Amino acid sequence: MSVDKKYGDLCNILKAEGRLAVAFSAGVDSTLLLRAAIDALGSDKVAAVTAVSHSFPERENREAELFCRASGVRRITVEVDQLSIPGFRENPADRCYICKKELFGRMIEAARENGFEKIAEGSNLDDLADYRPGLAAIKELGVLSPLRAAELTKSEIREISERLGLPTWNKPSMACLATRFVYGETISDEKLLRVERAEELLREMGFLQYRVRIHGEDGLLARIEVMASEFGKLLENREAVTEKMLEYGFKYVSMDLQGYRTGSMNESL
User: 0.85 cut: is pTM over it?
Assistant: First the structure.
């Protein structure tokens, strides 16, 4: 099936809802979903709901605000202290389920307070191939997943986004910063900030796709994942990267020879 046909299917799925709130993070998937909702329903019948917390980089929050303003869409922000959610800080294997259940519960409540009974999120077909306990929470809460309903993969989402001129078409994949932690190792504000600053450094240095995984109960070891094609670049900048990482609070800095891959922390499960 062509991507044009799939995008048409997506718009038809959204049009049937009549009025819709979109969980919007300014990432690749949710940006296309929001744009499709606008195309299908009009900006006056769509709202973007953004969760603001320490596990989502501040830069993403700013980008979400700019996109909504440029698109003429109302933006609803929900302040969430994830570390206060029972079980989140301890980081069990089902942390994503625990977090999503609370997070989307709050977002649904905020959407309804603003006149939107239904909310949609941006998981895609490829997400079903990884360990994603948060998807169970989304299903339980009755949140819509239109990209999956239209059978859109990540590569197709990027292709459509480029055709539509969306700024996110080649944006690196992003995920909650809590995914950088080893299951069972405590999540804290300090360590979240350490990871955020480390990844922002790699972004500013021009790396295309990256993760900084944090290891040890004190969070002293950084394991850097970049694409194999950028190993040379990381090694060329070894001293500069190490200096900044130590400044951020890490004591040991390593490069993962397997390179960047999604969900590498799930490999231990």
Answer: yes
